[in-house]
Amino acid sequence: MTCLTGEAKAMRNDISRKGLVLGILLLFVTAGIVSALNANPFSNSLSTYSGKWLYVGGSGPGNYSTIQDAINNAGPGDTIFVYHGTYYGYFKVSQLTLIGEDRKTTIIDGGGAFSEVLHIEDEVNIQGFTVQNTNHSSIGDVAFFMEGKDITISNNIITECSFGIYDYYAGGEIDIFNNIFLNISDRCITFQEEILKKSVYSIHDNYFYSNHIGIHAGGGRSVSIEHNHFEDNDIGVDAFGSHATINRNNFINNDIQAQFERVLWPMAMFYYPMYYKPSFSENYWEDWVNSTPRPIRGTFLFVMMNWFKVGYAWTFSLPILLQFDEHPAQEPYDIPGVS
Hints:
single chain; mainly beta; 10-stranded parallel sheet; globular
């Protein structure tokens, strides 16, 4: 039996400790590499999404070639990740998350053939796309047609349509943020919310440039229009019989920065109660260079049925109303996420 001196024993113990530390380090590094290889492209920011992940485009094994094929094979709560490219057609989406790789290069194009590009039902989250080119021969063509509840539309570019987002009696929590609207010939966002539905609408951090109307807000018990940028539109915000709070937005070089209507319409009292009126606070108005309250002009509308012609109504318009932004901002706000 070989006897080791004290110095040799110390050297052997030091080598053993170093080997143990090296082994532990290798174990962590290997685990990290395996985890990275198995991770989805948005794992850091979208780790909260549950369900199965399906992929469209790209070069991965088993990836779908079309968005429709992925939708057909997805179940409630699943996430569809779409790699950059141009995808043509009309898609109906329900209880899914749909994510584009890059909103500048991941394009859903109506091809000029569809009056709707995306038909949105319940519990849908869509982000990261350019949505464009609906059928301009149709008066009501729309990029996002919503008729569900609990919907999030974020981080998209929406362009070359008559309507950007059209709410057809959607409900629940509606969150629309970090989108860019360009060259929309009618209304970028339009909705009318009846008083009994108790929907919660949040429209924030969006950029509206060179459109006809930025937001047409009709009715709604809880509507927040906050921290958006409206520039070079015909009309920035039109609050029609709306109870919206319109706060901390930028209004720059629009033909009409903002306007509102209060409505007396017995047949539509569940949408536009007479007591509904918007409120304005701390907005930046490019045409208002002092800190005194900035006036916003409004119109009183009285609508009644035409008993002599079914389906028609008499409308009396009186531009006599006035509201104020009591505390206008003196500098424009920095709106992140719209570059």
